[in-house]
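**Fold in tokens:**
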Amino acid sequence: MFFDRDGVLNKDTSYIDSTKRIEILHNNLEKILDIIEEKGIEDSIKVIVSNQSGIAREYFTIDVADKIMKKVILDIKGYFDIDAYLFAPYHISGRHLFESPDDANYFRKPNPGMINFILSKYGVDKNNSILFGDRETDKLAALNAGLSNDNIFII
């Protein structure tokens, strides 16, 4: 089970650079729980996959992004547990340089890098995987990774 973060789990307030700016979207979480129950997939591996170009643009650091991610996970624990998270800290206009700029774009949604990494790492069947997102880039990343359109939910 894949989740975008901003706009799905928490309010997208543009470049969240502090744990104090996290606003959990309880209505979305209730909708997600209903879908999970309807599909009967409560015991699935749950992973957040999130573009975080603010790191490349030096609006905040990887350490800050990590703290924010952990705080979101803690705040939604009453709904469900998150098993892992990935974020793509890359962006073409970024000032922060990474070791593998040729591969960096593959991990940014709408490209399937983060999803494919999790599918491979955990041996997950893409035919039984679902994604919750809020943007077309989320949907395209899931489709590019081979997930079924029937298993993509734009919240």
